[in-house]
Amino acid sequence: MFRLDILQNQWLLVAMALGLALVLAISLAFLAIWRPRGGAPPPRAVPWIVVVVLAATAAFAVTYVALAAVNPPTW
User: How far is CA 4 from each of CA 9, 11, 17, 42, 70, rounded to the nearest angstrom?
Assistant: First the structure.
């Protein structure tokens, strides 16, 4: 049977992962562009938006699995 809610959640995770990859690529590109030319390189830090997106994705995954375990499908 066609379960639209499962497909919507899978596409949501794919969209969040691709958005995270895009944010990471843009952040690293800006870091490379605006890095000082001389001297010691600055320490690499993960941008806060990447941490927020990863935490939100992990929270969504844990919540979804917990709800799916409590309410199993009846097919």
Answer: 9, 11, 20, 47, 19
3-state SS, one letter per residue, for 8-73: HHHHHHHHHHHHHHHHHHHHHHHHHHCCCCCCCCCCCCCCHHHHHHHHHHHHHHHHHHHHHHHCCC
C-alpha gyration radius of the chain: 18
Q: Which amino acid belongs to residue 65?
A: V
Q: What pLDDT shows up at residue 59?
A: 93
Is the pTM higher than 0.70? Answer: no
Can you read off the two tokens belonging to residue 37? 């030319």
